[in-house]
Amino acid sequence: MSFGMKQARALVDAGVRAAEEKGYQVAVTIVDAAGNFMWSGRMDGTKFVAPDIARAKAYTAAAFRQSTAVLEEKANPKPVFYTGVQVVHAGHIAIGQGALPVWIGDEVVGGIGVSGAAPQEDEEVAAAALEAEGYSFPAADVATRAAMGHSR
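^ that's the sequence the OP posted. Answer follows.
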């Protein structure tokens, strides 16, 4: 399975559908494994800052190869270190729930970030998009999804 513009666009569309079903207004952004922008969509009525936040979340999930919820938990006891990480990657890192890495097999090929709803709702949309498009979830992300009441 390859990961290019067509797959990125399909993930954004799946995320928008999931958000519409739940009544959320969000932006969904996809980056590749190196954090480069691939595709984004902002639903009507979503705050104009949401796409930039979604992109930073997606970048973070791809860079750290884990959900941003898991990273947020790791960052809480080390605020000085993670603030430094954010400064070094000025404008690219957003440590907050709402993004997941995109895996094909055991390789991270990108990240999906969502912004506009509550943090757990953003992540719910990201997970629903990945699931709708047939992507797998590694152990750490499965644990996050289980906490949200989803199965693998």
